[in-house]
Design a protein that fits this description.
Elements lengths: L2 E7 L11 H9 L8 E7 L5 H8 L4 E3 L8 H12 L2 E7 L1 H14 L2 E6 L8 H10 L5 E4 L2 H9 L8 E3 L14 H11 L6 E6 L8 H11 L6 E6 L5 H10 L6 E5 L4 H6 L3 E4 L8 H8 L3 E5 L2 H6 L7 E3 L4 H12 L2 H15 L4 H20 L1
């Protein structure tokens, strides 16, 4: 009989964005679980959100609790749901899910797997206290990078021997390079010239993603490359301020804000250089997507990005919040086609290590490990 696994998630979107990385991971993970081994289900602590509605449209039901972050009724809700689903593993994502989930898992005798998706520089102080108090209830924790592993041990008080590194990834077949015709069609749809050299960024528009540094870099780099354009895909709370920044920098006519889009493979096809300008990360899914699409990548050397990218081979790393260096590297790549092509080949080769199926297989093995430990 398949083992019941209940995923519990704080939220499915961030500050005005339609969807964020954890929601996309659910959409990739759930169809790839082995149904003969595990029966997986998903619970969100809040009311329905765009991200959870998107999951439901993809055939992944979400049980919404409709609770606030500190609502004590969450504990009873989770205990009841875990029993209803015969869950033997609670797999939690987010602070509230981790806090109430650990208590619920203990109450029903389930194993608890805490999944940390990034090293949070803004973790509230009360969370450290909760983590210290609940450390003994964490059977395993999953880190998506070495920096996240260090964060779990140092800041979230998870014993080091209970932490496992499981890389994120992407469904490589979905993001394989598209045809030239498909890429050209998207360019024309977005109003990008056929012969433009396009720097692309895909991600929610908030402070973490560092788009303001990308725009500052573009203002310095674009004048030296007449055919260059910037494509920014995503939505979020900084959409308006970023548009105003582009106008103030005098580059509004060379920057396209595409908003939220679902046709990511085709958009990647329209890009010559993919840019990650984040100030911190776990391992952004767009990195794995761009690698699978065979793109030349310039990324800030933050957290998981610097662990995945081999500088000069599968991408180029630059310091975070350094628009001048970012501008220099972007301009160099835009003016050197052979260099772009070499980096693209390196990224495509490296992407084979980050197939999302490996991630799911590793999680399933982890469940087996912790359940065997519980039985013993």
């Amino acid at each position: 009989m398949p083992v019941g696994v209940l995923h519990v998630c704080d939220k499915f979107g961030v500050a005005g964005s339609s969807i964020h990385g954890v929601s996309r991971l659910f959409s990739w993970w759930f169809p790839r679980y082995d149904p003969s081994r595990f029966e997986v289900s998903l619970c969100g602590l809040k009311r329905p959100e765009p991200g959870s509605r998107s999951l439901e449209q993809q055939g992944i039901p979400v049980r919404h609790l409709g609770r606030g972050r500190f609502d004590p009724r969450i504990l009873g809700d989770l205990v009841g749901l875990a029993r209803e689903r015969s869950a033997r593993v609670l797999h939690v994502h987010g602070y509230a899910a981790a806090d109430f989930g650990r208590l619920a898992a203990r109450r029903v005798g389930a194993a608890l797997v805490l999944h940390e998706h990034f090293a949070d520089p803004r973790m509230p102080s009360y969370q450290g206290l909760a983590d210290r108090a609940l450390a003994s209830l964490t059977d395993r924790a999953i880190a998506v990078s070495e920096s996240t592993r260090e964060f779990l041990v140092r800041e979230r008080h998870v014993p080091a021997h209970r932490v496992r590194l499981i890389w994120n990834g992407a469904p490589l077949e979905e993001f394989a390079p598209v045809t030239a015709a498909a890429a050209l069609a998207v360019r024309r749809q977005l109003g990008l010239p056929d012969d433009a050299l396009v720097v692309g960024s895909i991600g929610r528009l908030n402070e973490q993603k560092g788009h303001r540094y990308l725009l500052d870099a573009a203002a310095a780099a674009l004048p030296g490359v007449a055919a260059a354009r910037v494509l920014i895909v995503g939505d979020g709370d900084l959409a308006g301020p970023l548009r105003e920044q582009a106008r103030a920098l005098g580059i509004a006519d060379r920057v396209v804000f595409a908003g939220h889009r679902a046709d990511i493979p085709a958009l990647l096809g329209a890009v010559d250089v993919f840019c990650i300008s984040s100030t911190y990360e776990g391992t952004p899914l767009t990195l794995f997507e761009a690698m699978a699409a065979g793109k030349a990548i310039v990324s800030t050397a933050v957290d998981g990005c610097r662990e995945v990218i081999e500088d000069g081979v599968s991408g180029i790393l630059v310091p975070p919040r350094d628009a001048a260096t970012l501008a220099l590297r972007l301009r160099e790549l835009l003016m050197d086609r052979s260099r772009r092509e070499a980096l693209a080949r390196g990224a495509l080769r490296a992407s084979s290590r980050y197939d999302i199926r490996r991630c799911v297989e590793a999680m399933q093995d982890l469940y087996d490990e912790v359940l065997a430990e519980k039985r013993a």
